[in-house]
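Problem statement: downstream parser choked on a complex file, so we are re-checking the raw output for the S-adenosylmethionine run. The parser issue turned out to be on our end (a line-ending mismatch), but while we're here, posting the original submission so the record is complete.
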Amino acid sequence: METHLPSDLLISLKSTKGFDQKDFIAAHQISNQITSVRFNPNKKFNIGDSALDVAEKIPWCNNGFYLHKRPSFTLDPFFHAGAYYVQEASSMFLEEVLKQTCQLDHSLKVLDLCAAPGGKSTLMQSLLSSDSFLVSNEVIKTRVNILNENITKWGAANIVVSNNDPKDFQRLPNYFDIIVVDAPCSGSGLFRKDPTAVTEWSPDNVMLCSQRQQRILADILPALKTNGVLIYSTCSYSMEENEEVVDWLIENHELEGINININDEWGITQTTSAKHKAPGYRFYPDKVKGEGFFISTFRKKNESDSYHTTKPKVISFEKISQTDLSNLKQWVNNEIPEIHFVKWKDDIIALPNSLLLESATLQNALYIKKMGINIGSMIRGELIPSHQLALSNILSPYIAWIEFDSAKALDYLRLNAISTENSQLGWHIVRFCGIFIGFIKILHNRINNYYPKEWRILHK
Ligand code: SAM
């Protein structure tokens, strides 16, 4: 579809480095969309079994690939299993930024402040060491569900999902090694994907977004450690939301901009902010194979420690009985080191060491929606396993399983009636081409489907 760009936007971009009006307009008139996915390194599958027609690799992201055409993701069981995430290629550049600016093999505390629907969070989780953890936060309540769903599908235990305002993180002063602020913005960078966004664009909205971005950044900066890394990004082309915010950050906070080395062939434009000459990286759709994006990275300089840390109240989890513990151990992969089981809100959750150590601090400060992997609930010594366990990396490889073909897997995901020749009663994990998609329980007279109702496929 041809996109009619707002003339005020084109005028405002005239003096922006890398902006080439003719080519930029032409790039918005191309009808075929670019589609890209990022594979989950913990859920390996044979691409030939999926709906994906994979083209070349995205140069700045190890697991990122362009597709020749956009399939129906909804009808691909691998999509529902979290075997890959559909993500716009430019935003995967975050991987290159993290690799160049952070020691990813260290044990790190990482915050993704504006996280829904979870693209940057799932990308970061794949890059972090197993003794690091990520807090994936979304302030808008109605958007936390989709974030939770995508994080659950990704299957990693070292993630916390929270639902907090940026200001709330001031309860965690000097806490995070890395903070990513993928800020809400005027969205001009996504005009090709969402032409209706054009009608919502206005210079006034750009100004409002810029002010909100500054507010969010000012609120969150106390939570960043000295020497910690702040990554700021938008999907807007406007200087007011990009280089001007960069200058505002440097002017008002103890931050220094960090250079990222880029390969000329990638087509990314390096800009410098007007006042402080701090670097930023622009993605124009006529120059890169991707949508509009801006990213800039900073290190927090030594500053006098003006924030005081309060010692957290110790929250002790309710103990799990030895019998329950040995019952649930058959459900998890005991080769994964340093996983602890605790009772939280009536359920049993699995926490890696790094999260267990910080759980009291995080619970004191934040409104937590998900922490580690929910294993399920123990009822009279029997575990009713949760869907989080089914999709997680910690499920035991020895659980009884049933392999479904594509038609049956889709019936399962639609919550349609399913049948099986398998006569063994009890819990089974359903697999599609070796990838786990959920639990069923085979009873004498029926099969109970434990796929979450709210996630079922509605599409025919
Ligand atoms: N990082 C996400 C990803 O890669 O999937 C996309 C984030 S989107 C660009 C910006 C997010 O910021 C939205 O989920 C939005 O709900 C959230 N947001 C809106 N207002 C906010 C505010 N005042 N403070 C923090 N986040 C906000």
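For whoever reads this later: The first strand starts at residue 35 and ends at 39.
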